[in-house]
Amino acid sequence: MAAGLPESIIAAACSRSGQRVLHVDSRSYYGGNWASFSFSGILSWLKEYQENSDIVNESPAWQEQILENEEAIALSRKDKTIQHVEVFCYASQDLHEDVEEAGALQKNHASVISGNPTEAAHSACLPSEDESLCSVICEVPREQTPSSDLETALEIHDVEVTGEKEKYYDNKTCVKSGSEEETSENVPTEEDTALQPKKNRITYSQIIREGRKFNIDLVSKLLYSRGLLIDLLIKSNVSRYAEFKNITRILAFREGRVEQVPCSRADVFNSKQLTMVEKRMLMKFLTFCMEYEKHPDQYKAYEEITFSEYLKTQKLTPSLQYFVLHSIAMTSEKASNTIEGLKATKNFLHCLGRYGNTPFLFPLYGQGELPQCFCRMCAVFGGIYCLRHSVQCLVVDKESRKCKAIIDQFGQRIISKHFLVEDSYFSENTCSHVQYRQISRSVLITDRSVLKTDSDQQISILTVPGEEPGTFAVRVIELCPSTMTCMKGTYLVHLTCTSSKTAREDLEPVVRKLFTPYTETEIENEEVEKPRLLWALYFNMRDSSDVSRNSYNDLPSNVYVCSGPDGGLGNDNAVKQAEILFQLICPNEDFCPPPPNPEDIIIDGDSLQPEASEFSVIPEANSETPKESTSLGNPEEDSR
Questions:
Q1: What is the distance between the alpha carbons of residues 419 and 431, in angstroms, rounded to a whole number?
Q2: 328-386 pLDDT, tens digit each
Q3: Are strands 437-446 and 532-543 parallel, antiparallel or unpaired?
Q4: Which residue of 327, 358, 578, 626 lies most exposed, with the fewest beta carbons within 10 A?
Q5: d(CA 431, CA 436)
Q6: What share of residues in the chain are helix, strand, coil (percent, to 5)?
């Protein structure tokens, strides 16, 4: 139950190994808390959150179906994984009644409460209907992001744009020549000009109209180029369902300024912010980190201290210590000891050069594409998917103490041997002894990058250290339009940290440091120092990744628990969890092997029979470029 990333990986692996898989989710979209939404989709998600909070538990009708030798484990009707939702609109709210999302199937009836952006900063939570914030709830149902043609390799798109404009054709990015730019659809029409009377002015009506160009992730993560998820995507050939871009910049926030961090060998020696002495210092230390296990004499005596204190014992200037701690090891002063810091630094360096000058990749159309990729693989091998299909309870046999069936919203029994349930589906009775952590999240729409350069197609990651005791470092990921996550002329910014308070209380101080709210007077000044903030969403998300199975009350042995997203940058936790649970369900089976080649398929009887035609199509995508897929699995480190 639920279609998050771990569940989708397990479903794909089980289906690939020959198991019959039924994947049900009470939500109307794939991905659960790993999903991505268009702008109207995120507004619909906000409306669902509001309606979900108003659900009143009724007397369950399924109790009549429980037999004498059975007992039931009731499941929750409310999704309590999202809390403290607050949304603010700072862009000019000159909406017209006929404004609707381009390509929408039905009219986007948006109700807007106009308010001053400065007043919006003091607004409270979404569920209250009397707020002076711009809370827009759209009736347009969320449409799945368009899937690209099946590719047979991990397709990496170069982000660097040298003086040429980009034009988007559905899923593909085409570079237009100078002569073609004049006829490009990105050239403003008279209607666009009327809606955009001032240069750089982006209104709320434009965001609504271009809402399909947004893909807003509920959870913000990147893929390490040598991480477990990349290896799994290549091994299983699921990578043919997705496309990726390189993260182009690692940034640091130091002394009130955003600056780029040199991390690869080329970046270090081309850096103008480091002296020659600092370059030698940094390269010497990074070389040591790559093989620190071979030199125990250089760190054994410092194992008990923090990594921050260990860096002070090395021959590194304060600025280099800052870069290594916050932007390369991506930790904080007190979060990691010496060994953990060295491991994190080595992992960062180990991932450099595989697909670019940074260790990270980002999937086009957002993180929510990844669960859908594995759902496609599951469906290809016979898996069945049912969205908007809730489950009322688990049916447990009293004698064997094993789960034998579920009862769905229609009172129908569905029998199975194994049951995989996402943590959010369990009731308070089942989770009465569970202690959860929380993740603070914010999603922003801004008008330009936090660090302006010649190219406007930069994808950046920035770590802002916590200033006060008890606060955590905030991870900032800034996405440009070429990632297919935002409209042209805007950036989509994700902020994430471990919660100490509500999401807004945790993250708003960082938002204030990096951005300035949009106001009509500032738009006249072309030299605004900070990017303008057009729209902001804050919410807290439950982190169940560290919950032990023993914390749940009386779970049958054939009921397996999947956690929601964790607060880490990568996806290793989801992949590890999926592989462990798969081995419990299907011991001694290969975890997500690649589809067979066409010549390996043996079809009984006439190969032209309709039964075989479906499966004969599956491997063809794999046979197109098998060498490319292999080379991406073990690329040369020519840009290390």
A1: 17
A2: 998 888 888 899 999 999 999 999 988 988 999 999 999 999 999 999 999 999 999 99
A3: antiparallel
A4: 626
A5: 10
A6: 30, 20, 50
Which among 23, 38, 108 is positioned nearest to 486, based on CA atoms? 38
State how far the Cα of 43 lies from the Cα of 204, in Å rounded to an integer: 13
Residue with tokens 């349930």: 421
The span from the CA of 283 to the CA of 279, in Å, is 6
Segments of 469-577 assigned E as strands:
474-479, 491-498, 516-517, 532-543, 559-562
The tokens of 532 are what? 């303008």
CA neighbor of 537 nearest in space, from 145, 252, 136, 140:
136
- The residue behind tokens 């490319």 is 628
The model's pTM: 0.80
Closest of 476, 514, 515, 471 to residue 496, by C-alpha: 476
Task: Provide the pLDDT for residue 58.
Answer: 58
Q: Find, among 270, 250, 266, 246, the residue nearest to 258 by Cα.
A: 250
Q: Do the Cβ atoms of 541 and 81 come closer than 8 Å?
A: yes
Q: In angstroms, rounded to a whole number, what is the distance separating the alpha carbons of residues 330 and 322?
A: 10
Element (H, E) at 89: strand 82-89
Q: Both tokens of residue 354?
A: 């595989």
Query: How far is Cα 138 from Cα 408, in angstroms, rounded to an integer?
Result: 29
- How many helices (H) and strands (E) in the chain? 18, 25
How far apart CA 35 and CA 56 sit, in angstroms, is 26
